[in-house]
Amino acid sequence: MNKKPVILLVLDILSLVFLAVAAYLALSYAPMEATMGNVQKVFYFHVANAWVGMLGFISAGVAGIAYLRSGNPKWDIVEVAAVEISLVFFLIAILLGSIWARPAWNTWWTWEPRLTTAAITEMIYLAYFMLRNGIEDPNRRARFSAVYTLVGAVSVPITFMAIRLFRTIHPVVIGSQSAQAQGGFNMSPDMEVAFFFSLFTFTIIFADLFWHRIRLGNLANKTEELKLKVME
Amino acid sequence: MSISPETTNYMIAGYAVFFLVFTFYIVSLVVRWSNLRRDMHILEDLEIDNKS
Fold it and tell me: What was the ipTM of the complex prediction?
């Protein structure tokens, strides 16, 4: 349990190397967008962070289903790991979006459909930890959490589709966008390289952190079990 | 010919925020792991003491 698997070590190294390459591609290789200037380069990491955030929230829902079907506590550990990591990535996506919006929309924040649904999603999963902290019985906590992540997962497709279903100023880079959208742009081949490499890199980073967080959860459980045993 | 707006500071702020939050999270994982390892060692020693 405590010895780090070789594959995880390889994943750690790959994550660091790919992150450095992704940063280089975004900051140096991809050309500057003419209308927005250099702030457009925030987009590469913004979308990649949002992608892994959503990936984790969906993974948590899947782990929730697995827990409800099997009752195996390992799925509860997986679920918590997915939610925690996704909360961090999704928060970064929201912050980067806000920084991009200041020069692009002349405001840090506006209550348009995408930003509103993203903020609600983040708050739903923040409340997940409040729910967990409020329940002492581990089985009951795991069961309630599993149901909560299932319900919470509904917010993910709503957030993803918000810019495609509603009239919004948030740009859609892939697919058609609303006529009200501000700050949209067409990606050149160089931009596409930076964009897709960032998506790939953050998927690898997510897998790496997910594994680490699951190991942390397992160690916490073992420590708790040993504590109870020693106190007997 | 149009001139692109000067928004480099926002780009720097964006990447700084990313690396700051990301590093903070990695550090929190490392700290929690090492705290649990320390607790585990203490509990294992206590368990051995209890048995003897």
Answer: 0.91
Structural domain range at position A147: 6-28+36-231
> Closest residue of B to A2, CA-based?
B37
The candidate with the shortest Cα–Cα distance to A60, out of A89, A74, A81, is: A81
Q: Is residue A210 part of a domain?
A: yes
| From A131-135, A166-170, A194-198, the region with the lowest mean pLDDT | A166-170
What is the pLDDT averaged over residues B20-49? 95
- In this prediction the pTM is 0.92
Token representation of residue B15: 């990447």
Helix axes A189-231, B8-51, angle to 10 degrees: 20
In chain A, what residues touch B25 (CB-CB under 8 Å)? Answer: 88, 209
In a domain, B10, yes or no: no
Number of domains making up chain A: 1
Burial class (CB in 10 A: 0-12, 13-18, 19+), B52: exposed
How many domains are there within chain B?
1
Domain boundaries, position B49: 21-52
> Are A43 and A188 in contact, with CB atoms under 8 Å apart?
no
Nearest CB to A36; choose among B7, B32, B37: B7
Which helix (DSSP H) or strand (DSSP E) does residue B9 occupy? helix B8-51
The answer to whether residue A1 sits within a structural domain is no
Query: How many CB pairs lie under 8 A apart between chains A and B?
Result: 92
Q: Structure tokens of A6?
A: 């070789």
Confidence of residue B15 (pLDDT cuts 50, 70, 90): very high
Q: Does B20 touch chain A (CB under 8 A)?
A: no
Give the mutation candidate from A25, A185, A226, A232 for the B interface (greatest B CB count, under 10 A).
Answer: A226
| pLDDT above 60 (res A135) | yes
